[in-house]
Amino acid sequence: MNHLKKVLFPSVLCLCLYIFENDPTEVTAIDLTTEDLSVAEQTTSTSSESTSSFQASTLTSDLTQPALKQALVPDNILKETILNKLGKPLTSELTKQDLAMLTTLELTSAQINSLAGLEYAVNLTDIRVEANNVTDFRPLEQLSSLVYVRLRGQNLTSANFPDLKKSTGITYISASATQLTNDVLPKLTQLSELQRLYLDSNMGITTIEPLKVLPKLRSISIQFCGVTDFTVINDFPVLNDLAAFGQNIGRMEPSATITRSTLAYDTEQETVFVPFELMPHRLTNFDGYLPPFSTSSSANETVLEFNGVQLPENRLQITDQGITVLNVSTDEFASWTSMHYNARINNPAGSYATPAHFGFYSISSGTYLQDFTIVEDPVPGAPVSVHFRDTTGHDIIEPLVLTGQVGESFTAAAKTFTDWLLVSSPATTAGLFTETPQELTFIYDKALGADVMVVYTDEENRTLAEPDTLSGRLGTPYQAKPKQITDWQLIQQLGNTQGVFTKQPQTVRFIYKKAEQAATPSVIEPYTETSSSYVLPEPSTSRGLMSVGERHMINQIIPEQTTVLNRLPDTLAEERLLPDTRAGFSEPKTVSTKNPPQKAQDTDAFGSVTVKIVDEKGNEIAKPQTLTGKIGEVYTVKAKKNRGIK
What we know:
Number of strands: 37
CATH class of the largest domain: Alpha Beta
Strand content: 25-35%
Distance between the termini: 178 Å
Largest sheet: 8 strands, parallel
Shape: elongated
Number of helices: 6
CATH architecture of the largest domain: Alpha-Beta Horseshoe
Radius of gyration: 57 Å
């Protein structure tokens, strides 16, 4: 066994060493002087320690695979163009250092599909791109040294036009024969150093007005665009060169709507006159002059169509004022629903003024195109009256009257009024004008006013009863009433007991004092005759309830005399309002046998009656007597006998 180990162990060890020595590996030289590695520059990572395992008589080892890296310029045609520009072999790989060496670059191959990688051409000052397949121009947005930019291609639009604001030194831009519209102009107005701008053959460019903010822009070329208004050049600070030959006006405009009566139809002559004054978006020179349309009826100069059918030359008579169409029957005229007008503008060089300070100025040889939709003349609709009323049906303001043509739409809206709340709206607030008058009504109610608090207190402002809260809408009346509180007498009120609800809270205070208690009845002494007079015995107290016994004793004193009855008024039963100042008790009332008893003032829970015996001149002939009792009780007064007096 030991002999076997001595033979096998060295053999296995030699086999392992052989395998490791002959394991295929890839060695790649690395250029440590370069910043980035190209696709061909790969490294192999080799472990410092090699391991092996012997399983089932099989020995394996890990082989290191090379890592792939994306090329800086993935488009092969663009890559070859740059390599040629740099004078490098076409088999070379571009690095950032290579791209940074570029200062000018022309890309005219139609096979270029991508500009990726040009963002590393940080020193590029002049670039020309005429590649119809390129749709992404964003790599140019990362550049900051551009001065001259020329872009061309049917895939260039306002949306993908690059935002070049990082290149603050751009002085020249050309973007001709593309799909640009007015939407590109905000991207151009950021370039404050821009001096020359070429946007030829972009019919979507219909104005140059936004460019007036560029302080150094002195030359614009917009030939074969669609610009109409050249009065705006008066606002450009240094512009002195304008090439605007051959404007194609109206290509981007929507169809205009005209009524049938706009086309003057002569029933006797069977002619229709189309006035040029109805044509919108006319070419206008810097001084406001409108160059005329061609007066030639030749199909090369004027095209007029109705319902898509071009009229022959012999049916057209054209002047500077408009076109007369001949031989139009009533039925034909009534059938027209569309009109198409396309003509040359009669503005050759020299027929219009040029700005005095311009070195070059041309707006010659334009064309005009406009489509129209012909509609019937509107019929005036009946008015729509919109009312704004309160809940009682009264108008808050004068009704709003809406007017329009039959078939036109209208919309009514609620209004906001101070102190009013909308409580009801029409079922529909929109509709169409018809030949029948219509009415819509918005109903409002007064807004709720602030509450009126009614409190019941004693003189020390202590609450005697639960307060009451009065609520109501602004401007509506309220009335606060005092309460009857057992053993308490109302003496004063503070605040308005009657008024209207307002926006401010209000308080009404009723003030009470403790009612006086009835005194204990006393015994009335029998009558004694003195000085030839009968005198009623005085009650035990000048105020208080008169007992039944007291009244009986008085009745027995002079039984033969007439009984005088009266009832003290019940003042608390009457719901009248007290004055704002403290109320006092009224003076006790005097009753004489000569004059009938008077109604006492109703200011106390207890009343008093003073009985006097007087002669015809009002002189007292006996001592006065005061009767007191609870308000509402019956009292009796009898005359005394006095000797010598009848």
